[in-house]
Amino acid sequence: ALPFPDVDSSTTNRVARSVKLYSAQTGSAKMVLSRHYNGSNMYLYGTYWNGSSFTAPSLLGSWSDPSSSSADSGNYSGGFMADGTFVATYNDKTNFPKYRSFNGASWGTQGSLPSLGSSGTYPSGVAVKARPSANEAMVIMIVTDGSTRTSYFANGVWSAYTTHATLSNNQNKIIDLDWSLADKTKAAIVFN
Q1: 96 near 113, Cβ under 8 Å?
Q2: pTM for the complete prediction?
């Protein structure tokens, strides 16, 4: 077993609160997304496995969260496209969810998905799945206003949201999606 690299060797106060692992559609590449907390701020890191070793973790984003309200929520996700590009989406407690792409060598600059509405409206749950054999993906989110929304990623751009439901107390964060392998133009979403 190989040791996982330290996300920040300058401090011992970045406790991992959540870790997710993703595999490339082909080949042996992997991506680890991990969220860490130091008592007042959240940090999201991406660490790439190239098939033989880990790269140094890259800080994708950080934000103030003194109450640790999002420490254990599933409000980040990612997926590998057919060309090996990895796209990560995450909540930084703003009404513009963020994303970054990794091309196998470096991370691109942070971008934003469309606005979710007024300030204080942000995703409490996020799931992303790349479309098989394509360089496209879909994200599903449960939002703090009770809505469940999706957005489609193609040609480096996120589409406007489709709202599937709005519930007054939708805080269970039960969401998922997956693409059909028989008809790769179709996906199914589940939410409560």
Answers
A1: yes
A2: 0.91
